[in-house]
Amino acid sequence: MNHSTKQQERWVYCPICGSKTRTKIRSNTVLENFPLFCPKCKHETTINAKQLEISIIKEPDA
Questions:
Q1: Distance between CA 62 and CA 51 in Å, rounded?
Q2: Residue closest to 29 by CA, chosen among 52, 46, 62
Q3: Helix (H) or strand (E) holding 9
Q4: pLDDT tens, 37-50?
Q5: Can you state the percent helix, strand and coil of the chain, rounding each to 5?
């Protein structure tokens, strides 16, 4: 693989406890309403991701 075309990638960290999750995103990854699960704190958070920027979606209280 040519190193100049290698994608930049980053681990996704849990927005609740700050631990590394099992999810990795690249610079061209686009996620919408993605259920991110943290194996450490066992919480699931809905996120969006685009160009390595992650935003947390607030769930409306039922």
A1: 31
A2: 52
A3: strand 9-13
A4: 999 999 999 999 99
A5: 5, 50, 45
28: left (phi over 0), alpha (psi -120 to 50) or beta: alpha
Tell me the C-alpha to C-alpha distance, in Å, between residue 20 and each of 14, 30, 40, 62: 6, 19, 9, 29
Residue 56 and residue 61: Cα distance in Å, rounded? 15
- Single-letter amino acid code for the residue at 60: P
Report how far residue 2's alpha carbon sits from residue 4's, in angstroms, rounded to the nearest whole number. 6
Candidates 53, 56, 1; CA nearest to 29 is 53
pLDDT tens digits, 52-61: 999 999 876 6
Is residue 43 a contact partner of residue 16, using CB atoms and an 8 Å limit? yes
